[in-house]
Amino acid sequence: MIVVGDRVLISPEEESRSRVGLYLPPTAVDSQAVQGGTVVATGPGTPVSAPTELNDEPWKIGSGEGRYLPVQAKVGDYAIFFRRAAVEITFEGKAYLVVPQAAILVLVREPHPEDEEDW
């Protein structure tokens, strides 16, 4: 499966239990504004044109390679996003959510040893 554009494929977490341990009915879970899940795949990002392509000669053939502003989410991140913006799909018997990058509120990422200088 290939994710396109600025979309993110998320494996949703099962939210059948509250923080204090009560089991919640599906109607209570569906009324929440946000949801969380693990990022499984990301699209290439938002397509942008190269500054050199903004000339007066539109008939010229460009480089042919698309340029993208990459998405911030990475595979393995935990994402909290607006539930209403997500589209549910089923692929090979498993449920996923396709979420646009603009609907993601927070990303939780485990630091890697090589990234520790940035923290």
What count of structural domains? Answer: 1
Rg on CA atoms, Å: 19 Å
Provide the structure class.
mainly beta
Fraction of helical residues: under 10%
- Strand count, sense and closure of the main sheet? 6 strands, antiparallel
Structure description:
With 119 residues, the chain is mostly beta strands. Helix content is 4%, strand content 36%. The protein contains one helix and eight strands. The chain has one helix spanning 26-30; strands at residues 7-12, 34-42, 46-48, 67-69, 78-82, 87-91, 94-100, 104-108. The protein has a six-stranded antiparallel β-sheet, with no helix packed on it. It is globular, with a radius of gyration of 19 Å.
Brief summary of the model shown:
This protein is mainly β. It is 4% helix and 36% strand.
Give keywords.
10 Kd Chaperonin, Protein Cpn10, Chain O, 8 strands, mainly beta, 119 residues
What is the element layout, followed by pairings?
Blueprint lengths: L6 E6 L13 H5 L3 E9 L3 E3 L18 E3 L8 E5 L4 E5 L2 E7 L3 E5 L11
Antiparallel strand pairs: 1-2, 1-7, 2-5, 3-4, 5-8, 6-7
